[in-house]
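Action item from last week, closing it out:
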Amino acid sequence: MTRTTEPTAPTAPFGARLRRAMDTRGPLCVGIDPHPSLLAEWGLEDDVAGLRAFTDTVVDSLAEQVAVFKPQAAFFERFGSAGLAVLETAVARAREAGALVLLDAKRGDIGSTMAAYADAYLRTGAPLHVDAVTLSPFLGYGSLRPAFDAARASGSGVFVLALTSNPEGAEVQRARADDGRTVAQTVLDRLAEENAGAEPLGSFGAVVGATLTRADAELAVNGPLLAPGMGAQGGTAEGLRRIFGSALGNVLPSVSRGVLRHGPSPEGLRNAARAEAEQLAEAVG
């Protein structure tokens, strides 16, 4: 692949573009997680050449089909600048083919550092400008304000960690503040405020794990709900209905290995993604 020109700023906010993509391509987010074991399954070396071959194959096979790609930043960052160059090219190519790109980076900091992260991922014209990025709110929700401001300016979006499915998350996310709300519910309520009045969908979403046994939270934030953990990690269609309830229509389920293990065959990847999208569309209505 060759580097391509960065697209101009979108004419519609992220929430509207995501709603359209989910309605036309199906509610499926495909993770791009080139971890060493998966590279080995594809017969690739755990080096930059293997990373590039893996990423190029996924993007070329699926970019005109899936609604959203979710590259995991860490698997590119571990190769240094060469890995980030692969990611930059993949992001540009995916977006040009009509797929949205959600970078799973889970950034969170304060002040000028948070502003720098926002500038890196959410500024139109930045080398790694993506449609949305995942953020961590656990330095305080207000610390994320530079990212919200940058997203509004560029028509981008963010997904804030709220109820993750890892066992360790509960000790923070389900802790209760002085007003009795859990930390997760506080985050969700603030997101609902960000999205107030947005149509057809707000641009500021939450991350809520598809493998949770229960949510115990009000998830209707008038924004998208990223649900990682489908398939190999244990998330099911029945589980989505149980966890998300009336907010189910705004859920963006994320599948990684369930699609990627069918590579390196482009046809295998396309068939797997199509089957997942059809199944999830039925599940979320």
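Closing note: The radius of gyration is 18 Å.
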